[in-house]
Specification:
With about 325 residues, the chain is of the alpha/beta class. It folds into two domains: about 100 residues, 3-Layer(aba) Sandwich (Rossmann fold), CATH 3.40.50; about 160 residues, 3-Layer(aba) Sandwich (Rossmann fold), CATH 3.40.50. It has twelve helices and nine strands. It has a seven-stranded mixed β-sheet with strand order 6-3-2-1-7-8-9, with helices on both faces. The chain has a two-stranded antiparallel ribbon with strand order 4-5. Helix 2 packs across helix 3, helix 10 packs across helix 11 and helix 11 packs across helix 12. The two termini are about 15 Å apart.
Length: about 325
């Protein structure tokens, strides 16, 4: 996270924190008490100019709401300045001064970076096929915005398996999500051109989706899914790391030697923390961001950083990932 924040040049650090517990074993009342007590104990070390919590694994706007409300309550008891209280958290519900684009900022940001690379490689968007492993929040929004940009999302997966149409047509992302929400899984959601037909596709495994003959592969779920065991079967020429560390070091070295472009996670999934930065910025200043203004800033930050990385990659004859790390480290050293 420190490298990611340095790379995109925002004034955040890399702290992480959490509770070792399975929230599915708790009632909502228990989860609420746990969330509030967590903030009570952390109160002195978090704040708008200290550590700033944001949602991560097994958290959501409801959990953040409980935390923010507890923080605000304690701040009031301590007679602290209420002006910047809401800047102590990001990923908040919009009625608590959150930013509505925060929900889809990660996926949207990943699509922006991919489009930047396609432009550098002079590849026609209409001819690019994409497979996305993982159809949660990040995978869905990445697919949605990549599809809107003209790319063909031909295969998607969730924890139960992957789907692909019989004739490899581009999937209708919003219809696929609507279908998944209705039935709880992707199998059978073969939706193309506004129509879903259970007979027009098939289910493949989550391992098989990684080995499809597509132009772009997007691991957006788990880490280490591309490893020594399957790296020789990867056919995509571009990999976008929307999950954290989905490509192992061994696989990275092998695929890079084979000429595969790998967009590293510290760049491709940094849209989320940029969204957090914009939310924090409007909480601690008088400036307000409409969705359009926030998206333009997010796109501007990512496009500028990608240009710097690409220039360094070409100049030094190193990979995109190496250029990203060098740039991030140089910024940390400057500070």
């Amino acid at each position: 996270m420190s490298l990611k924040c340095a790379l995109i040049n925002i004034p955040f650090g890399g702290g992480k924190g959490g509770i070792t517990i399975d929230p599915k074993t708790l009632s909502e009342a228990e989860l609420k008490r746990l969330s509030e007590e967590y903030i009570s104990r952390l109160f002195d070390v978090i704040g708008p100019y200290k550590d700033i919590p944001a949602p991560d694994v097994n958290t959501n706007p409801k959990v953040i709401r409980w935390m923010v409300e507890r923080y605000a309550s304690i701040a009031k008891e301590k007679k602290m300045d209420q002006k910047n209280v809401y800047g102590a958290f990001t990923g908040k519900p919009t009625d608590l001064y959150g930013l509505s684009i925060r929900e889809f900022a990660t996926g949207y940001g990943g699509s922006i970076v991919l489009l930047g690379l396609l432009s550098k490689l002079k590849l026609s968007k209409k001819k690019v096929t994409v497979a996305v492993q993982g159809f949660g929040n990040v995978g869905y929004y990445f697919s949605k915005y990549a599809s809107r940009a003209g790319l063909s999302i031909v295969s998607l997966s969730d924890s139960k398996g992957a789907i692909i149409n019989n004739n490899n047509d581009a999937l209708d992302i919003d219809l696929v999500m609507e279908c998944k929400r209705k039935q709880g899984y992707l199998a059978g959601c073969y939706c193309v051109g506004g129509v879903c037909d259970i007979n027009k596709g098939k289910v493949i495994t989550n391992d098989a989706i990684l080995e499809l003959p597509v132009d772009v592969l997007v691991p957006a779920a788990l880490e280490n899914v591309i490893s020594k065991s399957n790296m020789k079967n990867i056919k995509a020429k571009i990999i976008v790391e929307m999950a954290n560390s989905p490509v192992t070091p061994v696989a990275y070295e092998y695929l890079s030697r084979k000429g595969v472009y790998i967009i590293p996670d510290i760049l491709s999934n940094s849209g989320g923390v940029i969204g957090s930065y914009i939310e924090w910025k409007q909480n601690v200043t008088s400036e307000r961001y409409s969705d359009q203004k926030a998206l333009l800033l997010l796109e501007s930050i990512l496009s500028e950083v990608f240009e710097q990385i690409w220039e360094m990659s070409v100049l030094r004859k190193i990979s995109i990932k190496e250029a990203a790390v060098v740039l991030a480290l140089s910024r940390l050293l400057e500070k």
